[in-house]
Design a protein that fits this description.
Chain lengths: 344, 344
DNA sequence: GTTAGCACTCTGTCTGTTTGAGTGCTAATT
DNA sequence: AATTAGCACTCAAACAGACAGAGTGCTAAC
């Protein structure tokens, strides 16, 4: 479809525009060393590329900038994988070499690292509890009618719910219940908890507790709430460095959008579980992101999808670098997590 | 020091400037219905007020705006307490009437409410764990060499630490240790945990556990970390609505400053434990806040300081309204929390 | 097919002008 | 003695015109 020369010109134009955020004219292109033909020729080519919809003008006599279609083509066909800088590699290494106990902390640091290296905003979703296994469970009454229900997973995650405690349940009942639950549910993945509860625990409770009915109601309450995955952000203020976000109102709209966690959760969820996905401009379903691109990669533990890494930046984003980075980090993260939480 | 007329003029000037964010001239002031004298007279008074440092010009022939000294005087002497709007009162009421289990959630909602009512940014510090009492404690090994240490307080707060687990400690040791700790430390305020540990628990451990020395080392580890109070934010993007923050760079500096949690913690901590404090412009120790005012109020449980509510806005802030609101909310919060966590 | 040349377009900047809101000062008025 | 009217003056903001510069598209020559 496109001639080699058109490909070259398109590549140069997008590369340069990503660097400088300024429309590029035929003359500037012709001045480059890797260009042997004149600006007039380039003008003709640019006109053709514009006809095909890959580039556009900001006004009738301006230079050209890439269109969304242009970026799409660039990402799909022109991407030259770029080697990460040494010091960035080093940062990633040191992230994993620190003795980082908490999974949450590791994720949080990853978010910060991503934004630091890219100078864009990072968003990380997860880790999902769905396939993690219950390690221990506790019910602690803290006042009349109220108790804290604590679940601890094999990934070291602690999940907490405040729940109603029926008047009829006394300390002995609670203890018995907790013991039965721990006995029967330890090692069970979160996704199977409810099933297991029905199959095995109900019967035991009937025979061992005083107030069978209340206890059962109580338990139903415990396991009904579905906590949504946590969202971690890094470098939110990096958005303000971009020339396309010098207008405070645009910033405000975008901030308000990305702070709606449920929206972001859905957005990062929908891209499935493998590979790197790039959403350019209007490809994003969220209105306020129409001037942004979102690049996502997923990480997992032992083949089980755990969450999503994402970078949010202007459509004029350094795609090669970001894609390379996300690819590397998601794989490293998967490796480290699998090693840590899957082997034993 | 100031004549009644000067007081009146200063009050009008600041009130109007807070409303409109525009320099006020003698003619606009003279046009008001509560003003009986001419613009020339006002000009003279304005000149005097300027000489005294309460107001200033933006350029040689502009109207006047309040200086920081002017705001200070206004806050200290001219503040007419303002009645909150009915619908705002209603919002506060409904905040407390919801069946809000989690203390953290209540605080989070309070932050959102504050920013919603004021249209400024809210910051809430706390609640402090210092005087809350231990309700239950658990050690859960999750992999070789690592365990989760969970503390539950009487306010329903769950605190989690990931800790090294000595090889020598086996399940029986852990269970004995946990039982001893729960037995001896239940009901003890966090501030006394370490002392109590030394006084009572050490001896018991020596007689009841296999690997006394390792266990002790382990425990020392558990109780050494001091978690700092959590910081809750509400309405961060409200800053972008203010005309004084239309410049993206100013916004960036401010955002970067308020996202440094340790800084903010110190800032909100230092204002002591009672009453409402107003910091205007350069009175804030943080450079980036020199165009902002910070109003703080503290909340407590049963007389024990728990945390701080704060509103951050431009120096041109609606002081009367914000002060009234903070006063009300901090008292209500104190009342509700005391009732919920102190009575039993 | 490529390129030189040229007329044309649009933005951004600079300059000068005007308008309006404000001031300070002085002299007249109450 | 305090107040006010009047006036010269100042500055910012808005506007208009001129101009330079970077770009385009098109035509004709190479």
């Amino acid at each position: 479809m496109l001639t080699d020369r058109q490909l070259l010109i398109l590549q140069i134009l997008i590369d340069e525009y990503i660097q400088n955020a300024e429309p590029l004219g035929s003359r500037s292109i012709s001045k480059r060393q890797d260009i042997t033909f004149s600006s007039a020729t380039i003008r003709n080519e640019l006109a053709d590329l514009e006809d095909m919809g890959f580039i556009e003008k900001t006004h009738s006599s301006s230079g050209r900038i890439p269109s969304e279609k242009g970026y799409r083509f660039y990402v799909d066909n022109l991407l030259s994988p770029v080697q990460l800088q040494h010091h960035d590699m080093a940062k990633i290494q040191s992230l994993f070499h620190e003795k980082m106990y908490e999974l949450e902390l590791l994720i949080e640091h990853s978010a910060n690292l991503l934004s630091e290296i890219t100078n864009y905003t990072s968003i990380i979703l997860g880790p999902e509890m769905y396939e993690t296994k219950l390690k221990h469970l506790q019910i602690v009454p803290i006042s009349k009618g109220t108790a804290i229900f604590v679940l601890i997973t094999d990934t070291g995650h602690v999940e907490k719910y405040t729940v109603d405690l029926p008047d009829e349940m006394d300390a002995a009942d609670i203890e018995r219940t907790v013991n039965i639950l721990n006995d029967r549910l330890k090692g069970v993945p979160f996704s199977h908890l409810r099933l297991k509860l029905q199959q095995e625990v109900q019967g035991l409770l009937r025979t061992h507790t005083e107030n069978y009915k209340q206890t059962l109601d109580f338990l139903a309450q415990l396991f009904q709430t579905e906590k949504s995955d946590k969202v971690y952000y890094g470098g939110k203020t990096n958005i303000l460095n971009q020339p396309e976000f010098q207008d405070v109102n645009k910033v405000k709209d975008l901030y308000n959008a990305i702070e709606k966690q449920d929206l972001v959760q859905r957005l990062l969820h929908q891209d499935g579980t493998s590979g790197i996905k790039v959403k350019i401009g209007a490809e994003n379903t969220i209105q306020e992101m129409k001037n942004c691109s979102l690049i996502t990669a997923s990480y997992s533990i032992g083949g089980q999808h755990m969450g999503t890494l994402a970078i949010l930046g202007p459509t004029r984003m350094e795609y090669p670098r970001v894609i390379g980075l996300l690819d590397l980090l998601s794989k490293d993260l998967t490796k480290v997590l699998t090693q840590r939480y899957y082997s034993n």
